[in-house]
Write a structure and sequence with these properties.
147 residues; mainly alpha; 6 helices; 0% strand; elongated
Length: 147
């Protein structure tokens, strides 16, 4: 493995671990945002209510960051040439960047219901990928040279 591939793999390992922990924070921010919503009768259209709530701003911002990081991790996987994790990293990028954006529309509740479900899938996939990135190799080890 060349230095560029090795570097891409190391950066990926750090990013996927941070991504997984950020997903946990994202769930906390979603709960904080939902339970911080103040009801108001001045919003009449279905989407207006959530669009004007500032309690979900942190959740939205972190979600946009996570979507960008997922795309970056996909690029790092391609550079590293790691075919074992490529399909899962691709799925993670599609879910975090595309599906989360599409399903965050409260004006279509049946579509929006998939937003938390895809979030759970993102958490599971990122946790699995982080585990794979940080686990110790189980194969035979090289014997240490006697000094």
């Amino acid at each position: 493995m060349g230095p560029v591939r090795r570097g891409a793999n190391q950066i990926y390992s750090v990013l996927i671990a941070l991504f997984f922990f950020a997903c946990i924070v994202q769930i906390f921010l979603a709960g904080r945002g939902v339970f911080g919503i103040r009801s108001s009768s001045r919003y009449h259209k279905p989407g207006d209510f959530f669009d004007h709530q500032h309690s979900l701003t942190s959740h939205r911002t972190l979600g946009l960051i996570l979507g960008g990081v997922a795309i970056l991790m996909l690029l790092l996987t391609l550079i590293a040439g790691n075919k074992a994790i490529l399909p899962w990293t691709f799925a993670l990028a599609v879910l975090a960047f595309l599906v989360q954006s599409i399903t965050a529309d409260p004006s279509h509740p049946w579509v929006a219901a998939f937003h938390p479900l895809s979030g759970v899938a993102i958490l599971g996939i990122s946790g699995s990928l982080a585990h794979k990135a940080w686990r110790r190799p189980t194969g035979p080890t090289r014997p240490e040279a006697n000094a």
